[in-house]
Every structure is written in C-alpha cells, then in structure tokens.
Amino acid sequence: MNEAWKQMQMNEEKSYSNRDVLYEIEQTIEELEIYLESNPDDEIAQVQYRQFLNKREDFTLFLSESDDRIYHSEMQA
Question: 45 and 69 in contact (C-beta within 8 Å)?
Fold first, then answer.
C-alpha cells in the first residue's frame, strides 16, 4: 500500500474515533438534560452540563479545523 493510501486510511480511522468521542459527548449532554429536568437545583450537574456544552463546541471546532487541514493536504497531493 502506498503512502497516500496509508494516510487516507489513518485519516478515516481518526474520523471514526472522533465521531465516537462526539457521540459520547452528545449522549452525556442528553443524559444531563434529562437529569436536570428532575433536579434543576443540582449545581454540580449544572456545572457539568455547561462544561460538556463547552466541550462539544470546542470539539466540533477542532473537527472542522482538522477536516480543513486534511482537505488542504489532499489538495496539495
């Protein structure tokens, strides 16, 4: 397998693992939303909820920047 194919394979594997991480973040946010509906006074859960919202925002920004870098490197090849 040549280097270009190896790189594409690695990028695809990273993409799947990144989607798994994003899925787990989304699941945690949903679970916290459900929990907070019943327990709106739980300050720790509220903090965790905000942290996971920030984490999702940061991670989606990271993914978009990562996709841009991959796209540009593929265009150069």
Answer: no
Q: What is the residue-wise DSSP string for the chain? A: --HHHHHHHHHHHHHHHHHHHHHHHHHHHHHHHHHHHH-TT-HHHHHHHHHHHHHHHHHHHHHHHHHHHHHHHHHH-
Give 8-52 pLDDT, tens digit per residue: 445 555 555 778 889 999 999 999 999 999 999 999 999 999 999
- Residue 69 to residue 61: CA distance in whole angstroms: 12
Would you state the structure tokens that stand for residue 45, as one six-digit string? 């859960």
Q: Are 21 and 59 in contact (CB under 8 A)?
A: yes
Q: How many CB atoms lie within 10 A of CB 52?
A: 21
Which two structure tokens, joined as six digits, stand for 58?
């940061």
Supply the pTM of this predicted model.
Answer: 0.64
